[in-house]
Amino acid sequence: MNQSQTPDSLESLGEFGLIDRIATRARSANATTLKGIGDDCAVLSVSQGKRKVITTDLLLEGIHFDLTYCPLTHLGYKAVAVNLSDVCAMNARPQQITVSLGVSAKFTLKAIDDLYEGIYAACNAYGVDLVGGDTTSSLTGLTISITAIGEADENKIAYRSGARPNDIVCVSGDLGSAYMGLQLLEREKRVLRQSKTSQPDFGDYKYILQRQLRPEPRTDIVEFLDQIGVVPTSMMDVSDGLSSEMLHICKQSGVGCRIVEEKIPIHEETRRLAAELNINPVVAALNGGEDYELLFSIAQADYEKFQSQVGPPIYAIGYICEASKSTRLITTCSDEAQLRAQGWKAFDGK
Amino acid sequence: MNQSQTPDSLESLGEFGLIDRIATRARSANATTLKGIGDDCAVLSVSQGKRKVITTDLLLEGIHFDLTYCPLTHLGYKAVAVNLSDVCAMNARPQQITVSLGVSAKFTLKAIDDLYEGIYAACNAYGVDLVGGDTTSSLTGLTISITAIGEADENKIAYRSGARPNDIVCVSGDLGSAYMGLQLLEREKRVLRQSKTSQPDFGDYKYILQRQLRPEPRTDIVEFLDQIGVVPTSMMDVSDGLSSEMLHICKQSGVGCRIVEEKIPIHEETRRLAAELNINPVVAALNGGEDYELLFSIAQADYEKFQSQVGPPIYAIGYICEASKSTRLITTCSDEAQLRAQGWKAFDGK
Fold it and tell me: Has the ipTM of the complex gone over 0.90?
């Protein structure tokens, strides 16, 4: 690698920088490798027009989850759900997972049973088979590594790179709620630290808590798109926030976009807690992440198919334009603001 | 689960007990899932008589590797190699891997580059594509999770469960050398701790060091078996030691075996260091593990095909018998000793 381009540290390089650095060296030696690093899943050819997709996530205690407020059953469910969501983001159907666990001495067998209770609940909910894994002791807390495999027809795979000017940008559900759920959990954790006798007070915030603790992969959207004969021109799932994901799609498709602020679906509970905590709910939607909704672009001609069919709600939030027109948010006062990726960064210690 | 059968702790359950406990609840909801938990890989059907196999390993600093004597480049290579070995153990060809990394602040970018140097070296050596992964910060040391995918013809997959009485038990190379390599590294680490000015003295033990630090998956054996038209009736790779693996094959095949002590291939360096350290080299072969040789059974009629063709050495070390005749080692003094699995245990703190 070119020494002059080498940053000093992982922190300055960042997660996406490290991924780019790794991907630069990737070569494809196998005809079955159709897509490697750089999308929600890798894509492997099988035969007769079928594709397998594969994705993997590594979850570490203290980085990705906090067991003081995340029950192990929910954690198991979520760990599976976020991987299935990546499979959905390729417009594919999840079929198998492997689960590897590193477990330190502080965990009882009951705790591990609880974790698998959640893992199996997610498998059963989405018709996915647990087919393998690895189990080991750990010196430090819980480590969970999950790999998910899915299948799709060759002509239905949706990459990040296919968005074209004039396509409509859609999202499958409200954004910012998982982030506000996390803010609520963090607030109650601080309260509990100050007073050991308190009980957490989650008030009337059931929806946003569930969005944070128990996200659901949108397999129903993949089914619905298939049913109405629509293949998205590009697709991702919203794990880092709408801004970050939209910028990935625009960069990989070589296009720009306009997202219309007032069209972004935001749940009533998200707005209410945001007001209480003095947070702008649109910022939560743009940068919060962990919503695991599907963000996708479709040809204009396909948009009316959504409206003529009964299915899950789908929200049109903007459109794709030429790259020269940049990536912007049209605000409620009709100003334009640049979209910026301020989502979760893996190496900045936040 | 039945409460009366519930052990108190993970430690008393052990790794294989935990795997059994998880596997009991596994159901297959997808027609593409042909084999789940319980072999070296899961097996998925694709089409036209083709199978995909998938395996995964989780490696944690302080448990699976010690960076005081394992250079990161070697670690990267080994982490890939052991997964490719699992693919070979299904008589399949490895094609893709995903690599997930958890990295704590003590690692420099140079360290991560070194690790990937080894990962890519293994990929290039075996024609395997790195197609995805996940990168994250970690609070505690290095975590590596690798998933490997391979392909095989439907009628060539070798499970652990197909060994039949009178089959010949074969191994692809010498055993116990990786274990003796580890003993050498541990000895030098103790010496270095006592005297900071010493340099490690590995003497004339290049082979066993390389067996420990840089194991090679036996893709050449898979190729050779294909070339001579032999499909093993059962196969595993030797990661936990000959005894442990042989017991897995016998249990899953519902058979017994006789292993002939003097037929077990043991390298001259293994014998020499074993003598120096007062260790029985046969015990190292039986219980040491990490050799990553292929252990397999073949029909007697196939054995002559090995001898009539030029290929990698293959060692016949015993035979399969009825389950009622148990699993035994025929010792050099013609006694019979019960085979016992004393390989590496994941949860006993060793």
Answer: no
pTM metric for this prediction: 0.91
SS3 per-residue string spanning chain B: CCHHHCCCCHHHHHHHHHHHHHHHCCCCCCCCEEECCCCCCEEEECCCCEEEEEEEEEEEECCCECCCCCCHHHHHHHHHHHHHHHHHCCCCEEEEEEEEEEECCCCCHHHHHHHHHHHHHHHHHCCCEEEEEEEEECCCCCEEEEEEEEEEEHHHCCCCCCCCCCCEEEECCCCCHHHHHHHHHHHHHHHHHHCCCCCCCCCCCHHHHHHHHCCCCCHHHHHHHHHCCCCCCEEEECCCCHHHHHHHHHHHHCEEEEEEHHHCCCCHHHHHHHHHHCCCHHHHHHHCCCCCCEEEEECHHHHHHHHCCCCCCCEEEEEEEEHHHCEEEECCCCCEEECCCCCCCCCCCC
**Of the listed ranges A122-136, A184-198, B107-121, the one predicted with least confidence:** A184-198
Answer whether A109 sits within 8 Å of B9, measured CB to CB.
yes
Task: Tell me the average pLDDT across B29-48.
Answer: 88
CB contact under 8 A, B7 and A349: no
Are A37 and B130 within 8 A, CB to CB? yes
Q: Which residues of B touch A33 (CB under 8 A)?
A: 95-96, 129, 131
Q: Is the minimum CB–CB distance between A347 and chain B shorter than 8 Å? A: yes
Cβ separation B54–A13 shorter than 8 A: no
Q: What's the average model confidence in pLDDT over B13-41?
A: 85
* B135 vs A15, A105, A151: nearest CB: A15
Residue in B22, B61, B108 nearest the CB of A116: B22
